[in-house]
Amino acid sequence: MSTTPTEARTSAHATVDLKDGVDLRLPLVPQMGPLGEAYDAWVHHPISPQRAAQVSPHVGGSPRDVGFAHRWPASLRMFQTGWLERMSHIPWWLIPLVWVPIAAGLAWLALGPLGMGGLVFSLHVLAGVFVWTLTEYVLHRFVFHLIPKSGWGRKL
Prior knowledge:
Elements lengths: L7 E3 L4 E3 L11 H4 L5 H6 L5 H7 L7 H4 L15 H6 L6 H18 L6 H27 L6 H5 L1
């Protein structure tokens, strides 16, 4: 089905402007593949929280439906399956809750039972920070900003 950028549809929830063929009432990821050349333009046009709240029945939905999405009232639904949607919305504190104990345990293991000296440990930490920073830069520069040519690439 072909749509024009200004086409509007009416549903039980709201009137939705279909910009570049994306219906904000539906999960976003499955709609990315068919966008074709319009994908790059669409992905660089942010959707305001007010606009998201107007058009999406999922915005501010129950925690049962969209996991932690209720923490971000203007969060649009990304995936069709509930479990995958729940995995895409996590609170900020969950990251340090998982990784700080792991890092502390590995530091204790290196300095204690493995007998790594303080200087060697410090050099390993500095090397890790350098490698991580370089890896992040390369990923952001050459992977995350890559303009995908296929429908599958746009969904990733």
